[in-house]
Amino acid sequence: MKLYTFTQLTAISAALLGSASFAASNDALLELLVQKGVLTQDEATSVAAELEEQDQGFSISAKGKETVKLRFNGRLQGQYDSLAGSVNGADTPTTNHFYFRRLFFGVKANLDNGFYAESVFDVAGEDFSFDKASFGYKFDDKLNAQFGFQKVPFGFEETSSSSKLPTIERSAANRFFADQIDFSARHTGIHAQGDLGAGFSYAVSLVNGAQGEGTKLWGDSESDNALAYFGRLQWEADGLTVGVDAGANSNSDDKVGGNDVVAYTGYVNYKFEGLDLLGEYFHGDLGDFGDVDGYALRASYKIGKFEPVLRYSHLEADDFDIDVDELIRRASSGPDALATSANAGNEIDSVYFGANYYYSKAVTFMAGYEIADAEDEAGTEVEVDGFRARVQLLW
């Protein structure tokens, strides 16, 4: 199938992207391709049968001056949270609701000249947003480079896809660096990774210090000039992964009072048959606020389609206030709830236990219970406990 002009290629790619984002099924997408003359009815019928048999998503090739291969995918996570809490024994309001935790639509394009691009859109929040947007070129196995908005190499659990995590939410120690102080997670800039041989691999990032996709500079053009640096060295063999990540961020968005942040994490992950063990340690230098240290220990074991999971995490800061409702996602917040008291917090412990049921590779049911206790040096105690449940569909 040949498309003789770049305009035709662009128009059909846009139509495909729109279909992938909003169609109710692959059938609707195939019908549009037939209407556009990209596929015949017989070809569409054949592709539908292949999709049903392989359950691998949808891809199409178009030939013009360059060959382009497009692949569409999505992730839906419907969730229920019920979290209660207390401050010094006085109950706080309870979180109790259904919502979409994630609703992702993605498209990846590969050109035969070696370039590729990927965009993932998140429509679960109130505002349309990017989860990932980048393009890149793979020179060889030792150097695969990208420019764009994606996660920096800091934190094993943070850089693992939520679709593959056995726990419903990431640990409190992880969320401190990714969510409370906006140190790690997604930044815009230059990223690269590659294999070094003998089981070793690396990843590096030179990015904006402020989190975000970078199209807007959050006000005046000169207001966010700080850059951040991240690096990873990892070794893998026989189900064992050992790694060290480090980063330096001047944190221009003032999450830590304008102080520079330097942090590292070391981790060990071991997988054998159904067993999955993870241990991760974090350390951060927060400048005038002193140090912060934390760790998370996680164990899960698949028994057929069932998977029990247990995790314990701990975080302690010298002088920086721990925000409990930020570290325990969707915990109660507001003037009479956890956030106010948490602004004087210095230490938090969390235990999560749950079970997952893998109906298929594409459908997973998850349920878990989390108990968290935080305390500051003045003796203020904040407690959170509650139940979460999630259904996940991938396509």
Low-confidence stretches: 1-24, 53-59
Broad structural category: alpha+beta
Specify Rg, calculated over alpha carbons: 23 Å
State the major sheet: 16 strands, antiparallel, barrel
Organism: Coraliomargarita algicola
Keywords: Signal
Protein name: Porin
InterPro entries: Porin_dom_sf (IPR023614), Porin_O/P (IPR010870)
Summarize the structure.
The protein has helices at residues 6-22, 26-35, 41-54, 156-159, 172-180, 324-327, 338-342; strands at residues 58-63, 67-87, 90-111, 115-122, 129-140, 143-151, 186-197, 200-208, 227-237, 240-249, 261-272, 275-285, 291-301, 306-317, 347-358, 363-375, 381-394. By secondary structure, the chain is an alpha+beta fold. The protein folds into 2 domains: 1-65, no CATH class; 72-394, Porin (Beta Barrel), CATH 2.40.160.10.
Descriptive overview:
- There is one protein chain.
- The chain is of the alpha+beta class.
- It has two domains: 1-65, no CATH class; 72-394, Porin (Beta Barrel).
- It contains seven helices and 17 strands.
- The chain has a 16-stranded antiparallel β-barrel.
- The two termini are 26 Å apart.
- The model is unreliable at 1-24 and 53-59 (pLDDT under 50).
- Residues 1-23 form the signal peptide.
- This is Porin.
